[in-house]
């Protein structure tokens, strides 16, 4: 398996934790699709946190790449184009392959193609409205793709028009423009829409591009702080960990103690909850970025991290929904459920390994061809 020697183990822990949270959450949807008991809801909640971990981690890593590019004086359009090419070779091949497989699988099982399928090929399926009930993992990929395009493009334009201003100042300006704009869009949504349930809020706010891409740019901000104030970032890592824990537990204690839900606490959910969640998760990054451990544990975590993108794309729409189509899982005895659960995890990891080894990794390596560096 291809493992880059420059990987940061602590960030691999975050990535592995994020995908494992998602898989655990989806496991409850497989076994107990209609169960709303408290412990099931808690597991599913941590699955949503896993996706937010992916968002802030992506922003942290991509923001760091942009800052390195700025420090090296690579701020011409061809430099930003090469940045996009590298991201697209990392993300798009897997996405389009799994999208086509989903289309074929859906047609085989249901003998039809969903409406507006073309939107999925340009990441418009959830740009400004609720996502369709198809290939549901794609909602987060749309957010990431637009975040990769929007921020660097604004940064390039700022550098081109304000040549005498520090590029790091322009980097912060780009972040503030995007974060403030997205916040205003959520405020506008709050003032003009009524949320009737958590599911309604999730479809119309949490999973919509124009209300969510700021989550990734909080990661960009953390990358800037880590680079500009590295000594403090490391020295106060335990304090940041405590602050992150207090903030994370605080906002969710508020939800639990006051039974706050999107329908009765709309301002909190529409405007404040998602940014506070992102910030609380980022407080853990200084601590994890220096985490070290034994070789065996390290190899396991790194391998899960390497497979995380393939796992995210495959585990639900392809594996879980196919199992549910052929088997009425919820009514099965506990031992049968356990077997089905093991099959779900085995198929998810097995297919992800094949996808990574024979498609994702070879496609990613193409970005290093000389033709793209010229």
TrEMBL record:
Family matches, as Pfam families: Acyl_transf_3
Coiled-coil residue spans: none
InterPro entries: Acyl_transf_3_dom, Acyltransferase_3
Biological process (GO), any one: lipopolysaccharide biosynthetic process
UniProt signal peptide: none
Acyltransferase domain location: 10-344
Record keyword Disulfide bond present: no
Keyword Transport recorded: no
GO molecular function, one term: acyltransferase activity, transferring groups other than amino-acyl groups
Gene Ontology CC: membrane
Keywords, in A-Z order: Membrane, Transmembrane, Transmembrane helix
Regions crossing the membrane: 12-32, 38-67, 88-109, 146-162, 169-189, 209-228, 240-261, 267-288, 309-327, 339-359
Protein name (Swiss-Prot/TrEMBL): Acyltransferase 3 domain-containing protein
Taxonomic lineage: Bacteria, Pseudomonadati, Bacteroidota, Flavobacteriia, Flavobacteriales
């Amino acid at each position: 398996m291809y493992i880059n020697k420059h990987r940061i183990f602590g960030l691999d822990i975050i990535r592995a934790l994020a995908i494992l949270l998602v898989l655990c959450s989806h496991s409850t949807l497989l076994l107990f699709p209609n169960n709303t008991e408290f412990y099931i809801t808690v597991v599913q909640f941590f699955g949503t946190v896993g996706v937010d971990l992916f968002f802030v981690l992506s922003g942290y890593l991509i923001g760091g790449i942009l800052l390195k590019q700025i420090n090296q004086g690579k701020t011409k359009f061809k430099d930003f184009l090469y940045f996009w090419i590298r991201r697209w070779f990392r993300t798009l091949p897997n996405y389009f392959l799994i999208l086509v497989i989903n289309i074929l699988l859906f047609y085989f099982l249901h003998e039809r193609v969903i409406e507006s399928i073309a939107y999925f090929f340009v990441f418009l399926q959830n740009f400004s409205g609720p996502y369709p009930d198809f290939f549901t993992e794609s909602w987060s990929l749309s957010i990431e793709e637009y975040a990769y395009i929007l921020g660097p493009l604004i940064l390039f334009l700022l550098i081109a028009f304000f040549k005498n201003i520090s590029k790091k100042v322009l980097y912060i300006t780009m972040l503030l423009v995007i974060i403030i704009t997205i916040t205003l869009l959520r405020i506008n949504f709050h003032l003009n829409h009524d949320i009737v349930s958590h599911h309604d809020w999730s479809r119309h706010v949490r999973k919509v591009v124009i209300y969510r891409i700021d989550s990734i740019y909080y990661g960009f901000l953390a990358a800037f702080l880590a680079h500009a104030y590295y000594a403090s970032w490391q020295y106060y890592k335990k304090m940041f960990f405590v602050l992150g824990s207090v903030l994370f537990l605080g906002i969710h204690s508020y939800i639990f103690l006051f039974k706050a839900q999107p329908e009765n606490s709309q301002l909190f959910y529409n405007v404040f909850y998602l940014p506070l969640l992102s910030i609380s998760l980022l407080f853990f990054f200084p601590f994890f970025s220096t985490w070290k451990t034994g070789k065996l544990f390290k190899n396991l975590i790194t391998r899960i991290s390497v497979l995380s993108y393939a796992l995210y794309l495959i585990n639900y729409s392809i594996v879980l929904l196919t199992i549910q189509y052929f088997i009425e899982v919820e009514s099965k005895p506990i031992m049968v459920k356990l077997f089905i659960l093991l099959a779900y995890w085995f198929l998810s990891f097995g297919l992800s390994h094949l996808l990574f080894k024979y498609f994702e990794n070879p496609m990613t390596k193409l970005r290093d061809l000389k033709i793209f560096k010229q």
